Structures are given as structure tokens and as C-alpha cells.
Amino acid sequence: ILAICGIDLASRGRLRHDTMVVTVMTNLGFRIAMRERGIHVVDTAVGEGIAALQAAGVWERTVLLVVSDHGEAFYEHGVPTHGTMLLEEQIRTAAFLRLPGAPPRVMTEPVSVLDLVPAVTEHLGFAPHGNFQGRADILAPDYSAQGRPLLFTIQGITQEDAVLRDDWKLL
């Protein structure tokens, strides 16, 4: 997600020369793509990253997004890991989003990780990219997932797909 946003914004000349991307986990391709566009990447722990942003004087204008890519079983239902079944503990993920100037709140409605980039992009006042697949309205105070189908997949030890809509999950 960070790479797509960074590359897109850099290609449209929308990033400042002092843009910094702070991430907990990166891979070589991500680092190369960011470096080629003049974006500094710091691969560190979240707390250290926040401290670095504060020390650099840019925290107040920083968007911070921390998201996991999957849940974990931890021996619930007798399973030690993830990628095994479409159970709640494996398909639900945690996300933390800090937007400059936005008050804190807890989201209780279901959203997709695909919604995060369109939502942040809209919040920052940028036009949506044509390849965005998620919804931008998840940050609206009146957002509701009522009637919205959310698709999810597991591609690990097993390969399964499912859809969640309101109180129903179709496996």
C-alpha cells in the first residue's frame, strides 16, 4: 500500500522533497522503488519511527497507517498458525490509522484493507486513482457496512474464498 501511494504521488509531483516513509517491515523491491523516487524509507519499530518523525518536526503533518495482513490462530480451534481456515481469528486484522487533525475514534463497522488507501487519499484531498478497488467513505462519520459484501480469501495451507454481508458469512 505504501509503495503504491508513494510511487503514484511521486509520479504526479505531489510529494515534498522531505517526504519520509516509516515502515515496520519492508522488502528490497519496496526500498528500491522508494529510493528511485527520492523517498527516504526508515525500517524500524513503530515507536522509534514516531520518535524520528517528531524529532524531524514533521509528526503533525504525518499520516501513520499500521495494518496487519492476516490474523493468527494461536491454537484456537486446535490450529497453531494462519492460512488454514476462514475463521474469525485468522481473517480479522488490526489496523491503526492516525490522520493529522482528525479526532481519535474506534471503527466498529467492517472494512477492507483495500479501503485504506482510497480513504486516506480522499482525506488528504487527492483525486482517486483509477486502480483503487476499495471505498473511500469509510472515514465518514455515518459510514455503514450494512448491505456491503466484503470478500476475503485465504491463500496459505488451504485456498478458500468467502463473503461477509451484514450478519452472514458465506464460505
List the helices and strands and how they pair.
Layout: H1 2-11, E1 20-23, H2 28-36, E2 40-43, H3 46-55, E3 64-67, H4 88-91, E4 95-98, H5 116-123, E5 150-155, E6 159-165, E7 168-170
Parallel strand pairs: 1-2
Antiparallel strand pairs: 3-4, 5-6, 6-7
Question: What does this molecule look like?
Answer:
Helices cover 24% and strands 19% of the residues. With 171 residues, the chain is of the alpha+beta class. The strands form 3 sheets. The protein has a 3-stranded antiparallel β-sheet, with no helix packed on it. The longest helix is centred in the first third of the chain and has 10 residues, at 2-11.
List keywords for this structure.
171 residues; 3-stranded antiparallel sheet; 5 helices
Work out the strand percent.
15-25%
Q: What is the helix/strand order?
A: HEHEHEHEHEEE
Number of helices: 5
Main pleated sheet: 3 strands, antiparallel
Short note summarizing the structure:
By secondary structure, the protein is an alpha+beta fold. The protein contains five helices and seven strands; from the N terminus they run H-E-H-E-H-E-H-E-H-E-E-E. Helix 2 (about 30-35) links the parallel strand 1 (about 20-25) and strand 2 (about 40-45).
